[in-house]
Amino acid sequence: MGKYIIFVAGLLASGKTTFSEYLSTHLNVLLINKDYVKEILCDTIGFTNREENLKLSDATHQLMRHIAENSMKIGLPIILESNFNPNDAIYFEEEICKYNYKPITIVLTGDKNIFYDRFVKRWETRHWGHKSFDLPTREDFCKQQEGWERFPVSGERIIIDTTRFNDIEYDEIMKKIISIIK
């Protein structure tokens, strides 16, 4: 199907992990999920404060970039899932051009208030590596995510409103993705 990289980006509690796992299974493509990588680093290395936790987050992004580049070197498709930052976009643009890859960015967005409710609901069962800060207020949560829907990588963009999971048209999304990667 060609050389492509799919970025699954978006807001906290928008369903990025669930959606990226769905894509990985249906496309039979390697998925690198930021949270899972960070959890392994936290369990292996640990941290004692927020600053150390942020270093593990940075290491997670560096590992994701390294794995993506190695996949692109040998022509394998890959899916990356994270709340990416602009520095990631700059790096990936260079690699996409270098290896002549087709980028697809899937951005999950929706009602931040509903996402906050999801975030609070999962807080108690969340891996300890993601809780190096106090549970944010609704207002702080909504402010914190401003700009996360903008991951400025070239290529196709698919915006999906995940406010209500039951409204997502998975078959239509898959048809669109397959038409892009062919």
Give the tags:
Rossmann fold; five-stranded parallel beta sheet; 182 residues; alpha/beta
Question: How would you describe the overall organization of this protein?
Answer:
The chain is an alpha/beta fold. The chain has one domain (4-181): 3-Layer(aba) Sandwich (Rossmann fold), CATH 3.40.50.300. Helix content is 50%, strand content 16%. It is built from seven helices and five strands; from the N terminus they run βαβααβαβααβα. It has a five-stranded parallel beta sheet, with helices on both faces. Helix 2 crosses helix 3 (50-73) and helix 3 runs parallel beside helix 4 (86-98). The chain starts with a strand and ends with a helix. 30% of the residues are buried.
Evaluate the radius of gyration: 16 Å
Report the sheet with the most strands, covering strand number, pairing sense and barrel closure. 5 strands, parallel
- Helix proportion: 40-55%
State which percent range the strand residues make up.
Answer: 15-25%
Q: N- to C-terminal separation?
A: 5 Å
* Lateral strand order in the biggest sheet: 2-3-1-4-5
CATH architecture verdict? 3-Layer(aba) Sandwich
CATH topology: Rossmann fold
Shape: globular
Give the tally of structural domains. Answer: 1
Number of helices: 7
The secondary structure category is alpha/beta
The CATH homologous superfamily name equals P-loop containing nucleotide triphosphate hydrolases
Give average pLDDT, whole number. Answer: 93
How many DSSP-defined strands? 5
Give me the strand/helix succession: EHEHHEHEHHEH
Stretches where pLDDT falls below 50 for ≥5 residues?
A: none
What's the CATH first level? Alpha Beta
